[in-house]
Amino acid sequence: MHEVDVAVVGAGPAGLFAAYYAGFRGLSVAVVDALPEPGGQITAMYPEKLIHDVAGFPAIKGRDLVANLVAQAAPFDPRYLLGTRAEKLSYADGRPVLGLAGGEQLRCGAVVITGGLGSFTPRPLPVAERFVGTGIVYFVPQPAELTGQDVLIVGGGDSAFDWASTLQPLARSVTLVHRREKFRAHAATVARVRALPVRVVVNAEVTRLHGGGAVSGAEITVRGGAAELLPVDTVVAALGFTADLGPLAEWGLRLDRRHLVVDSTMATNLTRVFAAGDITEYPGKVRLIATGFGEAATAVNNAAVVLDPAAHLFPGHSSDGT
User: Fold this and answer.
1) Of 48, 51, 109, 178, which sees the most CB atoms within 10 A?
2) CA 36 – CA 140 distance, rounded (Å)
3) Contact assessment for residue 77 and residue 66, using Cβ atoms and an 8 Å cutoff
4) Are 118 and 246 in contact (CB under 8 A)?
5) What is the distance between the alpha carbons of residues 243 and 41, in angstroms, rounded to a whole number?
């Protein structure tokens, strides 16, 4: 059985910042994540995409943000238990005990859950099933691999427009197709892509893909119109994903539509269990990386007081004494 002051469940941005902040408060910390690398959804889905809403960075690649967060926590030597799922939660002498996949146990003074949206599965593009892996992708970990290609992006959310912005300088052509006229993406993101040489086709669907062993073309059909055949090397299906809390759903946590309900201290309904980041829910919740950083600090500071009632909630600024 391992033992630490704080166990962070989830190694995305909020979890990595929680690991730093626990170390800053003098607490030992372990970070548990089912994925084999830190970074959560950023590492798995868009490591090369530019992120524009992190304070202090006009733009930063996802991979670089994760590397910076890992480096920030490194002086405090957090223990990373990656490729390991937190399966069960129990208590011993009033303290949480995490049961990990493989039978190991992690005893901790407090738990901070930063699991994002849980495990995620991309929504499929119906006509693309036989081309998955040979021209159909749901994420683009290495955008440079699409250099010089004709790329078709399907979707109308932030991911679709972010991929269009990222791939346009690399690809021979980029076409974005959305089945509606209105987009779910942020208006500024849409405006940025519309200013680029990206063709945006609305009220349209991909009705057929062509190719032998790999995709060579796609038919798109505008509502009420005839099908148009486009040369395509890669289709990026940015249709969102379904999320699953996995074992967390069985821990007895209070849930609101797959999110963990927390109070202003980031405490859940379970003793010594806090949460931060996209997985949380409370009135006025805004799901941004920047918000998750603040929630992580709030969760850790309040956990520190639970661990030691004599500790101060506010530890002072990290710049104090320098």
Assistant:
1) 178
2) 18
3) no
4) yes
5) 12
Burial class (CB in 10 A: 0-12, 13-18, 19+), 231: middle
Cα–Cα distance measured from residue 278 to residue 79, given in angstroms and rounded to the nearest whole number: 23
Amino acid occupying residue 90: S
Residue in the structure block whose two tokens are 């166990």: 7
Give 281's strand partners.
261
Q: How far is CA 104 from CA 1, 95, 100, 274, in A?
A: 6, 16, 5, 22
Contact 261, 254 (CB under 8 A): yes
For residue 210, report the phi and psi dihedrals to the nearest 5 degrees: -115, 150
| Alpha carbon distances (Å) from 83 to 3, 12, 138, 155, 171 | 19, 13, 22, 30, 34
**What is the model's pTM?**
0.76
3-state helix, strand and coil shares in percent for the chain, rounded to the nearest 5: 25, 30, 45
Closest CA to 243 of 287, 281, 288, 278: 278
Written as one string, the DSSP assignment of 195-254 is TSS-EEE-SEEEEEEE-SSS--EEEEEETTS-EEEEE-SEEEE---EEEE-GGGGGTT--
Query: Which residues on adjacent β-strands are paired with residue 235?
Result: 136, 152
Instruction: From residue 245, give the alpha-carbon distance in Å to each of 39, 97, 251.
Output: 18, 19, 10
Query: What is residue 7's three-state secondary structure?
Result: strand
- In sequence order, the β-bridge partners of residue 50 are 61
Name the DSSP class of 10.
Answer: -
